[in-house]
Amino acid sequence: MKTKFREITGKAQEVLLRFPMVLLMGLLSSVGAICMLDSKNKKELLFTHTKFTICCCLGISLMFALKILSQRIGKRLLLEVLGTVFLVGFYFVLPGKERDFTEVYGFIVAITFLLSHLLVSFAAFLEKNRELNFWQYNKNLFVNIFLTAVFTGVLTGGVELAILAVDKLFDFNFHDKLYLDTFYILAIFGSSFIFLLFNENGLNYLEKDGTYPVILKFFTQFVLIPLLFIYAIILYFYSFKIIINWELPRGWVSYLVLAYSIVGILALLLVYPLKEEKAKSWVKVFSKLFYYTIIPLLVLLFTAIFTRILEYGYTEPRYFVLLLALWLLSVVAYFILNKKASIKFIPVSLFIFGLFSLIFPYLNAFSVAKRSQKNELIKLLDENKLLVNNKIDFQKRVSDTIVIEISDKFQFLAKRKQKDFLLNLVSGKTRNLLAREFEQPYSWAFITLRDAFTNVDKTQEASTLERLVLESETRVTHIQGYQYLINFNNYTQESRDINGDTFEIDNQTEVNNNGMIRVILNSAQSVDFGPAMNKLFENNTSKTGTVTMKEISMENDLGKYHIKIVFQNMSRSKAPDNKMNIYYDNAVLLIKEK
């Protein structure tokens, strides 16, 4: 027992000494996740902790890649310093406030994570040769990741059950937070530690020759390749259907072709060492034929992609789909034309394409999408003769489908900080309203723009679009008889402590993400103002446009308090999918003890 304990502690010590930066990133990620949990009611602090956690999680794979690279070329300290500088810089690339974190930053984070993992796969193998070592290294990483997932799952589940057993059997009454804290520590830091234990001394262990895993051979031969065969037949039959009916392919076929191609490439990588064995002729046949089977599907893929792009222009998702298609084309051309093709080309080329999409001037995903949607907007306005002296004429007759399309493009560009471009297209009162919208945490520019058109023809497809605005005559909030006041808006979830009690204004959770308000007292009692808010609108459903009311308010009892909410204005929109959304800018919660 003593010998085993020394062996375990010795291995743990070796991991600590060999991969200190990877473990530090794992520990900081766990701490960041716990801090996110603690600051869930403080949105600005929560966002700061979220950014910190994202960067530290990115650091786990990045520092591992740099460590493996340093085992090949040395310069460990320099590489770790450069990695740290990159992570600090990446933290400041992300916006300072949650309201500025648009889907653009989501793409940046996702692609950067992909690049860091690709770097792990090839960083130590940039020199020529070492082909089999490269395969063995990535195969061992793949197996270790699977084992890590199993071990971490069992360990986390076991520890959580042990805590639960102690809690229930001995009446300790642990706080629920203990379970989540334990999960974050074991799932992030624990999994990092277990993964490094499996990797032993790193590069030398991972790239050494080993026997081909029987389970991998079975999975590839009898599961993966037959599935690919079935998938290919389906796609080819669909291609014949398109030719016979002479119709354009559906947009989602792009994802099916990409899925087939990427899974097929993965299958080729998995059976790579077997293709030279004479007994494994099926592998050799599959390796030769696969890339040729993709060629007709590439025609289908590019047709589907350009059908969407030519009709609607580029957006970031369409850009990335096109980029993946171009990468796939390069892989097919490389392996068909090059008799001495290297499998290292696959991750290295994907890394280059991904890096290009993020940082290449003028042609990166975000520049292309903004430029394309600007051109599409101007084209749409010109086609419908809505531009007069380079300004939108909101008096001209136009269909509501065109209005929706214009406002959607406004919203797309508003999220990408194209304020000046958009304001230059409007004038007068609409310009002033839009300028104020852009200053709000979340811009509802598309609603403001829809309301600006005064001569709209309703069509059958878009006749369900409705909007009703309630405006208060009272510009001064009377607080007589109330002791406390909390200001809030549609964009934040407020939490305030009053006399030892915590009031939480919930309008951001999944249940309330359509603008409804729920006031919660001490996480135990609550009042749902959703029905009262809907009733205000239902009382005015026979009216359209803007309805002026003496006061827009609602009140109710909550525990030992009486509360009242007062609005300056409210609007409710019914979208084509029949979903109802309520919007308001500033509101006041008044509180008094009963």
Q: In brief, what are we looking at here?
A:
Helices cover 61% and strands 13% of the residues.
Taking the alpha carbons of the first and last residues, their distance comes to 66 Å
Largest sheet: 4 strands, mixed
User: Which whole number gives the mean pLDDT?
Assistant: 85
Structural class: alpha+beta
Percent of residues in helical segments? 55-70%
Strand content: 5-15%
The total of beta strands comes to 16
Poorly predicted tracts of residues: 460-465
Could you say which overall geometry the principal axes of the C-alpha atoms support? Answer: globular
Query: What Rg, in angstroms, do the CA atoms define?
Result: 29 Å
* SS summary, helix count: 19
Largest beta sheet: what is the strand line-up? Answer: 11-5-14-15
